[in-house]
Design goal:
5-stranded mixed sheet; globular; alpha/beta; Endonuclease, Chain A; 8 helices; 5 strands; about 15% strand
Length: about 210
């Protein structure tokens, strides 16, 4: 259902041990420990939500251009992170996506269509809350870019935002409270989960 193409079954116990770029390994390590993930995306669909063909098309836009080998490794690494959906117990996953990220035809019309269908499938998972922020909502604290917070079982957390704390990951509870406050307001301003699914179905009808 998640379109992992057999990657999940072939995964090692710790995805971060696979020979991928350090930034990907570090992110995979954090996601593999998280009991709660909160993510607001303003430019692209979150990597955990991407289909393989969407991810390939998106990564192919990077400049300098990736070699074929680099591109395949990057796509495989991104798909490998989807092991988070298979974890037991399941982590709580909350995503808010800006409307524009669901309209941008990355890879063409059919790639986008299959990506939207995949979002609807993922939204059915009981531990996933997927919301859409309509472009018409112009006054919310996500206008500065991405916001993400990961919480862990030991009570610690890490987060980052494009326009706060120099875009660096933060761990201090006072800084994390700021990011959580932002995310809470963003969620409140976005469409509800049910409204968001109806919105994505409407986009599918237009695609």
């Amino acid at each position: 259902m998640l379109g992992a193409g057999g990657l999940l079954a072939a995964m090692k116990e710790d995805v971060a041990k696979v020979r991928y770029p350090k930034t990907v390994r570090d992110l995979a390590k954090l996601e593999s420990r998280a009991v709660e993930l909160m993510s607001y995306g303003s430019h692209n669909i979150h990597g955990l939500l991407q289909t393989e063909e969407y991810a390939r098309a998106l990564l192919a836009t990077r400049r300098p251009t990736l070699t074929e080998d680099e591109l395949e490794r990057a796509v495989t690494a991104r798909m490998a992170r989807k092991v988070i959906f298979q974890r037991v117990p399941s982590p709580e996953l909350s995503f808010v996506q800006e409307e524009v990220t669901l309209r941008r035809p990355v890879g063409g019309r059919m790639v986008l269509r299959r990506q939207l269908e995949h979002l609807l499938e993922v939204a059915q998972l009981r531990n996933v809350d997927l919301q859409v922020m309509p472009t018409s909502r112009g006054d919310h604290p996500g206008t500065g870019g991405r916001v993400q917070v990961l919480k862990f079982a030991d009570g610690t957390a890490t987060g980052r935002a494009d326009d706060a704390f120099g875009s660096r990951p933060v761990h201090d509870p006072r800084q994390l409270r700021i990011l959580e406050l932002r995310y809470g307001i963003i969620r409140a301003e976005a469409l509800t989960s049910r409204e968001s699914q109806a919105f994505i179905e409407q986009l599918l009808g237009e695609t």
